[in-house]
Specification:
Tetrahydropterin Synthase, Chain A; globular; about 25% helix; 9 strands; alpha+beta
Length: about 240
């Protein structure tokens, strides 16, 4: 009996793709990546599975250690880390440890362009209706110990949310912020030399507030399980 398994994993990294026709892609920036390992083979009648998911995770772990919180262009063999090249590179490293590996799928967990989306009210987090966009940006945190992974140059698909009384009026203001931060190296932005999620939320608030006096909240999520919410000095 043949079966197919999918094991999904994520990592965060910075890169640039010099041959790209898009200016933003040629600049240093960052993403959150999702890697799906597709495996195919016979069902083990005794165990009732194709493979232990933990074994799949462990086979990918050495590769994830190279990729996560890294500058991909500096990894041997990844001088042009486009998605197609990255898929082939991962497959070549993981296949010997996972003979059942059939294919590798790599996707970016961001929009890659200014695509504002309305978010419903979230009573649990006290968040009103708001707009959400993503920033595909690189950064490093210069004030953490060198042993901390965030001291390394890496990147994220930052998920940014902002709420105001008039969401339609907020769209062009968010677009202006997006143009300054998206597909950029945040440490080079004035007043973002230490671009933690907290400092990024405050910076975005300050750059929206002058033209959006009814601004209520700014939230920054650097991953699905890490978020910062800022409601201004009185929040």
């Amino acid at each position: 009996m043949q079966i197919q398994l999918i094991r999904a994993l994520t990592f965060s990294a910075a890169h640039s793709v010099p041959p790209s026709p898009r200016e933003g892609t040629r600049r240093l920036h960052g993403h959150n990546y999702r890697v799906e390992l597709l495996l195919h083979g016979p069902l083990d009648g005794q165990q009732g599975w194709l493979l232990d998911f933990a074994d799949v995770h462990n086979a990918f772990a050495p590769v994830a250690e190279q990729l996560d919180h890294a500058h991909l262009n500096n990894i041997p063999g990844l001088h042009t880390p486009s998605i197609p090249f990255l898929k082939r590179w991962i497959f070549g490293l993981v296949k010997p440890a996972l003979p059942a590996l059939e294919r590798v799928v790599v996707t970016i967990l961001g929009d890659l362009e200014f695509t504002p989306r309305r978010q419903p009210e979230d009573p649990l987090l006290r968040l009103p209706q708001r707009l959400a966009v993503t920033l595909e940006s690189a950064h490093r945190l210069p004030r953490v110990p060198e042993s901390h992974k965030c001291s390394r140059l890496h990147g994220h698909s930052f998920h940014v949310e902002a709420a105001a009384g008039d969401l339609d009026r907020l769209i062009p203001l968010l677009q202006r912020v997006h143009e300054r931060l998206d597909h950029r190296y945040l440490n080079e932005i004035e007043e973002l030399e230490n671009p933690t999620s907290e400092n990024l939320a405050v910076w975005i608030w300050q750059n929206l507030r002058a033209d959006a006096p009814d601004l209520a909240v700014v939230a920054v999520r650097e991953s699905a399980d890490c978020a910062c919410i800022y409601r201004g000095e009185e929040g």
